[in-house]
Design goal:
The structure is a single chain. 37% of the residues lie in helices and 22% in strands. It has 487 residues and is an alpha+beta fold. β3 and β4 form a beta hairpin. It is globular and about 60 Å long. The termini are far apart. About 8% of the residues have low confidence.
Length: 487
């Protein structure tokens, strides 16, 4: 029997495909930086043998009145997806950031498979490789595995094609949705209905806050735990009005910080009884606070929310394409001046979200609305996105050096897309014993993202100083600091 050339796109991947807006493109952008110069022919050969081993990347996403489909591109040409440029003059970090910002603001060609690689020469005496892949193909966890499949552990390793090819059909996909959604299928359906009702009731709830409690109690009386938590999400209210919120334009700005030592972050987290993720999120919160404060904006008592992806992939399925993550809304204590207290609050907020239904609800809801009318999806994602100011994601990378096309990857950064009206994304990636911070923002809201990422080192130094000066007693409050953090 001939292999099918047209496959239906899953509901959640369809949802990500349809989230594209001129002001927020659903494209994951990554930058790999190399000390030496990449050879264009070897780059292309690596992509042909390793990247295109995933048949999905030879397929384009097609939408018609019956839904969204993966369809083989009969006119596929790798030269349409791999481009070579040279930065002008003595180009360094600023010039590469400007180039990546331009790419992050440019839509992919919807008539072709939705990905591109840009080989950038004349960068700091070496090369960089910018990859752009639409979110409908995969999430960050899967794309890191795709990247690793193209790398080697030494410069001399063979580029022979592995015996295994990766099927576009994602054999674990059906089992995943069966495992995750079947037990709560009724609740997801009910949650979708509640979502529609909340959209209809939005104006009434805004005018009559008491009605919100009635909606929640009604959901609880029906035993709809999942729908009740969805109602809480929908009734969360818009995020605090700061310069991070506002009308979006079509231009993006990207920036990345100098890497931080992962081992020192681990030591800090262990000493303070926090996870590495808690420490990194607290550092990001402090950097945002200092940015606002430097511009004269009021920060005392201020709180904003970030959407944080939560990986829902079963163990052993990291390499399969598709989107398998949920989302939670995390309160960021911008208004807390003391870095240690800010870290405690971040940790408490993260602990409160453990065991939450939020990730499963959002994943199931996206899966459901991806098969429904586009207008319903736009309304629901718009309603949820107004409750946050940023997306913050932390993806683990390889903790050893890797080589691509014969060159060692020195630094690795990526930026995640933001949906709806969210105008900022913070990306954290660990690679080869270092932490890489990246930030992407709407150019009108944050025209100088380098001034935010430049503060991550300051926040790291403050926390390290206070860690050394202040003992931490598990759940108890830390003793008063014996010194003052550097400013």
């Amino acid at each position: 029997m001939a292999e099918a050339r047209r496959e239906r796109i899953s509901g959640v991947d369809t949802a990500w495909l349809r989230m594209d807006m001129p002001t927020n493109l659903m494209v994951i952008v990554g930058v790999l930086m190399f000390e030496g110069r990449l050879e264009p022919a070897r780059v292309k050969r690596t992509l042909e043998r390793r990247f295109l081993a995933y048949r999905r990347f030879r397929q384009k996403a097609v939408q018609d009145p019956t839904g969204a489909w993966w369809e083989d591109d009969d006119d596929f040409d790798i030269d349409s997806h791999v481009h070579q440029v040279a930065l002008p003059g003595k180009a360094g970090k600023a010039e590469l950031q400007a180039y990546v910002s331009d790419l992050a603001s440019t839509p992919l060609d919807a008539t072709k498979p939705l990905w591109q690689f840009h080989l950038v020469d004349n960068f700091d005496g070496g090369s960089a490789l910018v990859m752009r892949i639409h979110h409908c193909y995969a999430d960050g966890i899967a794309l890191v595995q795709v990247m690793l499949s193209m790398t080697e552990k030494s410069a001399r390793a063979s580029l022979a094609l592995p015996a295994q090819r990766f099927d576009a059909g994602d054999p674990g996909d059906a089992a995943f949705w069966e495992q995750v959604l079947k037990p709560v299928a009724g609740a997801i359906e009910g949650a979708t209905r509640v979502g529609r009702n909340l959209l209809d009731q939005g104006r009434e709830l805004a005018a009559n806050p008491g009605a919100a409690q009635e909606v929640l109690e009604g959901a609880t009386r029906k035993g709809m735990d999942f729908a009740g938590e969805l109602a809480k999400l929908a009734l969360m209210g818009s995020d605090s009005p700061t310069r991070f919120k506002g009308r979006l334009g079509a231009r993006k700005r990207v920036a990345w910080a100098e890497p931080l030592p992962l081992d020192e972050v681990k030591v800090m987290g262990k000493a303070l009884g926090c996870s590495i993720n808690d420490v990194l999120l607290a550092m990001a919160t402090g950097a945002l606070r200092e940015y606002l404060s430097a511009r004269g904006d009021p920060v005392d008592g201020l709180g904003i929310r970030a959407i944080v992806p939560v990986n829902l992939r079963p163990e052993g399925q990291a390499r399969e394409l598709g989107n398998r993550f949920g989302l939670v809304f995390l309160d960021l204590p911008i208004g807390t001046e003391d870095p240690l207290q800010r870290l405690r609050e971040v940790r408490a907020h993260m602990q409160a979200l453990k065991g939450s239904f939020q990730p499963l609800i959002v994943l199931g809801l996206l899966h459901a609305v991806g098969y429904g009318p586009r207008i319903l999806q736009e309304q629901i994602t718009g309603l949820l996105s107004q409750n946050a100011s940023a997306v913050m994601t932390n993806v683990p990378g390889p903790q050893h050096p890797v080589w691509f096309a014969g060159r060692r990857i020195e630094e690795l950064n990526f930026w995640v897309p933001q949906s709806g009206g969210i105008g900022m994304g913070v990306s954290i990636l660990s690679y080869d014993g270092r932490i890489q911070f990246g930030l992407i923002a709407d150019a009108g809201l944050v025209p100088d993202p380098d001034r935010i990422v430049g503060r991550f080192r300051d926040e790291f130094d403050k926390l390290m100083w206070l860690t050394l000066m202040s003992p931490w007693e598990g759940e108890a409050d830390a003793a008063p600091a014996r010194g003052k953090a550097p400013r």
